[in-house]
Amino acid sequence: MAREYATVCAGPFAPQAMPSRLCIQRSKEIGMPTRTNQQVQRTRVIILGSVAVVIVAVIAYGAYYSLSGPSGSGVAADEHYTLIENPPRRRAGEDIVVHEYFSYACVHCSNFEPLVHAWSEDLPEGVRLVRSPALFDALWALLAQSYYALEQLGALEANHDRLFRAIHDNGRVFRSAQMVADFVDGNGTTAEEFLAAFTSPDVVRATRDADRRMRDVGINSVPSLVVAEKYKINMNVGRRASLDVADQLIAMELAGAESPSAEGAGAPR
Fold first, then answer.
1. Domains along the chain?
2. Residues 56-87: pLDDT tens digits?
3. CB 27 within 8 A of CB 5
4. What are phi and psi of 181, to 5 degrees?
């Protein structure tokens, strides 16, 4: 029996002006699917299957990046961390410092911030988190100096999350100290106080020290975690897992244990 096929279909590739009722593509033989219709269905299944595979792969990678890690099985040099050459020797009674190298300009640092903040609130006695802003270019240096100016003024808590949100949620770009001053004005400080602190010798020195510290330990990406100025954590293990690695390295330091390859390392500087 001869079949009569429709010539238009308002599917995903048809002009929008085509009414959907014209997407009839059927045979006068009611109930008998056409070859064209079968091909379309087969193509749709292939496309949907491919999309599903991509989605699953993205979700799996995100889960791995966020959650993968040593899971209590111990940490290993080169896999979970890198030993820093000639680290300073920690004196008895001194706190173990975990440096977080970051920048307000870094979206990954913004995403990491809630995790590291919650983690820092449960650190054992004798351990503390110190943020160290990175200075990879002039704009990052501006934000680093702003960090220390706010810290000196006691206005850091009021503006830390605000700066992340302004840059990454609202698209703000800070190109001068005056722009930052206008932004923080009325939030724990004034624009005038901020500008005075920004150029103060203590803030300039703290910014210079942050740059030196970053270079000394070989920081070339952020966020990065360094424990006791001795262990630079491999952040590729995942954000959450990097904090698990930090916990285990802290436990090693508190117990007075050292990695076998680190024995004898550590010199005053």
1. 1-32 (no CATH), 63-262 (3.40.30.10)
2. 443 444 444 444 445 445 889 889 999 999 89
3. yes
4. -60, -45
